[in-house]
Amino acid sequence: MPETEDVVAWLLTGAERDNPSSDLPAWTEGNLAEPLVHGAAYFDRLVDAVRDLGPGDHLFFTDWRGDPDQKLRPDGPTVDELFSDAARRGVCVRGLVWRSHWDGLSFSKEQNASLDRELEEDGAVVVRDQRVRRLGSHHQKLVVCRHPEDPSRDVAFAGGIDLGHTRRDDAEHRGDPQPQSMSSAYGDTPPWHDVQLQLRGPVVGVLDDAFRERWDDPTSPASENPVAWVHDKTEQWLGRNQMDATPLPAQPPPPPPCGPHVVQTLRTYPKVWPAFDFAPEGERSIARGYTKALERARRLVYLEDQYLWSKDVAGHLAASLREHPTLQLVVVVPRVPDQEGAFSERPQQLGQSEAMTLLQESAPGRVHVFDLENHEGTPVYVHAKVCVVDDVWAEVGSDNMNRRSWTHDSELSNAVLDPTRDEREPRDPAGLGDGARTFARDLRLELAREHLDAPDDDGLVDPDAFVAACVASAEALDAWHAGGRVGPRPPGRLRVHRRPELTRLERLWATPLYRLVHDPDGRPLRLRLRRSY
Predict the structure, then answer these.
(1) Residue 463, by phi and psi: left (phi above 0), alpha (psi -120 to 50) or beta?
(2) N or C: which end of the chain has fewer CB within 10 A?
(3) What is the rounded CA–CA span in Å between residue 292 and residue 237?
(4) Residue 379 — left, alpha, or beta (φ > 0 → left; ψ -120 to 50 → alpha)?
């Protein structure tokens, strides 16, 4: 069992979560967490978990984007087929999907509406939820499978992977045969890198709680969109749309302990009006969880992130880097934004440029930012949201390293603290007596082996050796490209990520778009003024 002092040093206490209106516990013990790297691995497990549900069982899900025709295996089933089959055999299927913005802006309004309609035809209830701040979204990606007659069979999936097109990729990174529209840089079937957690044990009950809090909130799901409210009411009158949440069945007891892992479920909710019953001032436990863990960082912070946009968020990394001269930062991001066009690209590039400048100036030579490509040279879109601190604390979620994810949208992540000490040297990389933990180290090494085309962990366990291997691999691949691709391609997929450079005019017009649209602030005014979360 983990020592209480050990857990409190890394995870938020109930008071530090700072949301007394929620019943979520500070953390749970006795869980089994398993990272599922790539959408193909996650979707395969999801099919098995949902097919294991029978009459009276529960299937709850939240999603940012859902495509009903997305195949979860090469020969199916689709999302619609899997979930509709469950509903027809008596499973209680309930979903919360973001209502989304217009498809013409590269969002997924029509896809999410289609998922809603098709599942409800077979007895599920899906609510398109727009209880967000202006220009905000529900970004949580969660599936909870519960067996009230036998909670030991319960399982949940949470992380960065939507039930949508482009996500079913694997380690080869050839892309999903069902692509969504993206920048031409990523080709016809964009390669996609992502991570989801499979979770068993008491934390499944916590994730059930998190779903129920949002489902039971009494505010209309279309509260921020009067036109949508009228449209949905009309659809409801015609029998084509279930607008309001129906009562959920009684909640089963939490699953019994089944593994060693301590798991802390972290969330972001903005301050909105009408206020959430379960978070009247919003919740920023993701931001608080990150900042607490980063304060203990001494040797290595490893990040995979879709954006790394925000100078405000990067400031916490920069502070740790300045304070601890042995600390190194490795970040893996996409090479270019997912959508083309100046009004999409330039504000994002501005935010990333500011964040990278701050970090690199805070710790010259100790900040290493990379992007990925597959073996054919096509950039891989990094959608994963992963953080590993000193091979002790690991987090996988829906949140990105920006102000939007930390304050403005709804997000959900899980931090894992494994009490099992890893015996490989260095046994205590940070030198604080925390040791290295099996889950966190194994997650970092699994990702490292893929990105470096490494057959094993040799030379990757030690943080300094790992950084050196990443730098050497990326520089060798860059040199091969610069030399005209002559001779065998060097192993690895990492490329040195170049800091975006904008002209003075681009900065002038991109700055208000970045701050108001791309990376807005959802904190109460008092916290904004104090620059606190």
Answers:
(1) alpha
(2) N
(3) 49
(4) beta
Q: Residue 204: which of 263, 170, 155, 272 has the closest Cα?
A: 155
CA angle centred on 115, ends 113 and 121, rounded to 5°:
105
Q: Which residues contact 335 (CB under 8 A, 6 or more apart)?
A: 185, 371, 372, 373, 379, 495, 497
Strands annotated E in 137-295: 142-146, 155-159, 192-193, 195-200, 261-269, 283-284
| pTM of the model as a whole | 0.94
Q: Give the three-state DSSP class for 352.
A: helix
Tokens (6 digits) for 486: 């002559």
Half-sphere exposure of 94 (CA within 13 A, CB side): 21
How confident is the model over 135-162, as pLDDT tens digits?
A: 899 999 999 999 999 999 999 999 999 9
The CA-based diameter of the chain, rounded to the nearest angstrom, is: 67
CA distance 332 to 351: 16
**Cis peptide leading into 463, omega within 30 of 0?**
no
Q: Which residues of 177-194 are buried (b: 16+ CB within 10 A; e: fewer)?
A: ebbbebbeebbebbbbbb
